[in-house]
Specification:
With about 190 residues, the protein is an alpha/beta fold. The protein is built from six helices and 13 strands. Bound molecules: coenzyme A. Coenzyme A binds next to strand 12.
Amino acid sequence: VWCEAVTLTSSGHSLRQLVRSDVEQWLRIWRPDLRPAHGAATRTGLRFVWTHAGLQATLLFRASQVLHRRGVPVLPQLLWRLNIMLFGLDIPPAVDIGPGLYIPHPVGTVVMARGIGARVTLVSGITVGMRRGGDFPTLGDDVYVGAGARILGSITVGSGARIGANAVVLRDVPDGAAAVGIPATVRPPSEAA
Ligand SMILES: CC(C)(COP(=O)(O)OP(=O)(O)OC[C@H]1O[C@@H](n2cnc3c(N)ncnc32)[C@H](O)[C@@H]1OP(=O)(O)O)[C@@H](O)C(=O)NCCC(=O)NCCS
């Protein structure tokens, strides 16, 4: 039921572009010394895909996302379940997430959002979902979500916001602000920097 409630604000990227953007995000974070699309960057990117469960889970989600967008039956749901079984990552194919998604540790993360922007980090054990029923959050670009955080209800987390580890976020978070604690209190960008 919740699946239909998620708004698909498709970013219009192909599977190839999304995979590339996700691998490049890992390179940006772990090997900023490497020039993008250079031989060494390509080799390192492939090694990351081979060695990191977080990247494997992200790419499995991407495959399900794009197949869903193309209207392919059954397969997106199978990939979604496979992702839960293999990596513990539970993101329905209908959830639209922009390029450059970074999930270092997929286990225990559940994401049911209206939409999520580009270059978002979901560290580990995160819940993004409804508070009471049918009300899902929206996350902007460059949002950082710390380990164990819960983001609940029809709220908006603004671009560049940072959500502290174990925070329970129940209200909107402005662009660039930090939100910490239970329930989360917002620290404006000047204090958050
Ligand atoms: C929220 C966060 C991004 C803020 O980082 P920051 O901007 O460097 O902020 P600071 O560490 O200087 O903390 C600012 C204030 O928020 C508090 N704070 C920071 N993180 C907090 C958290 N998760 N819960 C409660 N309070 C927190 C600090 O105690 C400090 O309070 P004070 O001003 O009263 O002294 C960071 O603390 C955080 O939680 N990161 C998550 C990291 C993570 O998930 N690691 C797992 C890796 S596997």
